[in-house]
């Protein structure tokens, strides 16, 4: 009887009880409950295979995250010898496009090169260079063909792409699902997109991001990441691969139909994406 008593006390006091540990899925569902809009999340730990998914197969607007498929399209041209990474280019005011980015402020007839276009597109989410790169990649139709060949059924460029006008009205420049865009980054990380060397080049470009005050801010500065952010008024999304000490993990955070469309730091979606990033870091690393 005394043995049974002490065993009962031990089980009551010990954290290692018969009660099941809360899963990552449950944690994320709790964190996203009450968000005023639609939230989609896909998370995968590459080493352990642990994953969690919330509306992971629902289509969301990409906003500027469509620039990752555009990057793939340009690199495909380079691999085929139709373009060169350091190919000289001439900027013209006629291609200027507003919003984010730096090239819109270049002087007309400024000499640049393709590598600069791609770097600005990814690092500073430059809209002018992105549209330029989309055209250099033979347009959205060709980029979408590549996405299809990679097994991505819903990841598409809509803007300036014949036949996708209705999709453009609904989703904007591009569309994807949390699972698919995360899968694309996993393929790049593993060297499976176009070629290992091309994948490495794209991964390096995605490792130099100016917009590090969102999900990246919850990850220690000493840890390498590859990412892309996409934000418009009613949709804030982020794609991140974390090269963490205990193993790489990828996540895609997407929102749409957001009620809070402000651009202040306490925007509801932006606060949530930071919190989700912190939850994932603590989950996998502590």
Automatic annotation (TrEMBL):
InterPro entries: Beta-lactam/transpept-like, Beta-lactam_cat, Beta-lactam_class-A. It catalyses: a beta-lactam + H2O = a substituted beta-amino acid. Keywords: Hydrolase, Signal. GO terms for molecular function: beta-lactamase activity. The keyword Hydrolase applies. This is Class A beta-lactamase-related serine hydrolase. It comes from the Bacteria. It holds the Pfam family Beta-lactamase2. GO terms for biological process: beta-lactam antibiotic catabolic process; response to antibiotic. Residues 1-19 form the signal peptide. Residues 40-251 form the Beta-lactamase class A catalytic domain.
């Amino acid at each position: 009887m005394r043995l049974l008593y002490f065993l009962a006390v031990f089980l009551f006091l010990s954290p290692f009880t018969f009660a099941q540990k809360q899963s990552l899925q449950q944690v994320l569902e709790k964190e996203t409950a009450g968000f005023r809009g639609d939230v989609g999340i896909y998370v995968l730990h590459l080493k352990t295979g642990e994953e969690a998914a919330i509306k992971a197969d629902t289509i969301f607007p990409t906003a500027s995250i469509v620039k990752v498929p555009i990057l793939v399209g340009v690199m495909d041209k380079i691999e085929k010898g139709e373009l060169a990474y350091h190919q000289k280019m001439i900027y013209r005011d006629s291609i200027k496009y507003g919003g984010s980015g730096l090239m819109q402020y270049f002087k007309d007839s400024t000499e640049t090169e393709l590598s600069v276009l791609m770097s600005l597109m990814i690092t500073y989410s430059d809209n002018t260079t992105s549209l330029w790169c989309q055209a250099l990649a033979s347009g959205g139709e060709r980029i979408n063909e590549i996405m299809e060949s990679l097994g991505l059924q819903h990841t598409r460029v809509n803007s300036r792409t014949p036949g996708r006008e209705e999709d453009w009205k609904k989703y904007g420049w591009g569309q994807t699902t949390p699972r698919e865009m995360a899968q694309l980054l996993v393929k790049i990380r593993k060297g499976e997109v176009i070629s290992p060397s091309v994948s490495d080049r794209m991964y390096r470009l995605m490792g130099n991001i100016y917009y590090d005050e969102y999900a990246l801010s919850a990850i220690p500065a000493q840890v390498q990441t590859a990412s892309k952010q996409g934000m418009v008024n009613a949709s804030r999304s982020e794609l991140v691969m974390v090269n963490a000490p205990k193993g790489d993990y990828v996540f895609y955070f997407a929102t749409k139909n957001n009620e809070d469309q402000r651009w202040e730091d306490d925007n509801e979606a932006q606060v949530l994406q930071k919190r989700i990033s912190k939850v994932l870091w603590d989950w996998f690393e502590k």
